[in-house]
Amino acid sequence: MRAAFISRTGPPEVITVGDLPDPVPGPRQVLVRVRACAVNPIDTYLRAGTVAMPLAFPWVVGCDLAGEVVAVGDEVDDFAPGMRVWGSNQGVLGRQGTCAELAAVDARWLYPTPAGVSDRDAAAAALVSITAHLGLVDHAALAPGETIFVNGGSGGVGSAVVQMAKVLGARVIATAGTPDRRARVAAFGADLVLDYRRGDLEAAVLEAVPGGVQVYWETQREPRFDQAVALLAEGGRMVIMAGREARPAFPVGPFYVKGCRLFGFVMFKADSQRQAAAAVDINRWLAAGRLRVPIDRVLPLDHTAEAHRLQEQSTIGLSGVVGGKLVIEP
């Protein structure tokens, strides 16, 4: 099979696209012909060696995938050849990745793709939608009628948070950096979309929600804790999902006086049962057209290194060059 892989960690240029032996599924694995996979920030951190995990070289990059089942292991009952599936959690914790023509995936990390949902859309939604669901449902426990502020509502996770929060019955206030992206976030259902760079952002939010918001979701690598605490209502909850190297000052006094709570989590450390429960809702919302993660561009497998460069420029370099998911089609 052709695959995008590395033989050592380093910059995007260490990615090689070439032939590797076809994977053989184990007893509890499913062999998937990959039709689409997506690039996530964690992919670039692992490739660069900035996040240490066991990597069996040659190591195939990529977490997300969508495609169809080619074969199943002897102990797999829920999948059969020809079924369309999507999933995530590959390329981490010692598991080989998905930027390849074939991937052997543990059945517990795979879910049926709803009819009418393309492989591109399923792959783009995989990691970011599971992340959004875990944060909103398992951690923040967002309730109908509450208000959530999403700092960065136009990207992969942010757009999923906005759409899911609306499905869950919440009022959504979000930020985005350009008129086009603010219009897109509004189309996702946000009730109020603001430019995150405006000097009176806190005043504008508190004018719309005088008592403050119940949930503040931070998508950025450097959490804005002072802003978050100022916007949170009494007993409010804040969710962070990025920023491994971030060491911002934290307003302890205002935070505890308000009785706030802070949740941080890593999506791929959640157990398979919790992720499968998220996938049930995600499939229902994808099928109904109530969830769709924006795709910035689709690239062929040979351009995997380019996709990693673009992702790094956007997340680490804060270039804003990527306005949605980067999807690769092997």
Report what the structure shows.
The protein folds into 2 domains: 2-113 and 294-329, Medium-chain alcohol dehydrogenases, catalytic domain (Quinone Oxidoreductase, Chain A, domain 1); 127-267, NAD(P)-binding Rossmann-like Domain (Rossmann fold, 3-Layer(aba) Sandwich), CATH 3.40.50. The protein is globular. The strands form 3 sheets. Strands 3, 5, 6, 7, 8, 15 and 16 form a 7-stranded mixed β-sheet that branches. Strands 11-10-9-12-13-14 form a 6-stranded parallel β-sheet, sandwiched between helices. Strands 2-1-4 form a 3-stranded antiparallel β-sheet, with no helix packed on it. The longest helix has 21 residues, at 119-139. It has 9 helices and 16 strands. The mean pLDDT is 95. The chain starts with a strand and ends with a strand. It is of the alpha/beta class and 330 residues long.
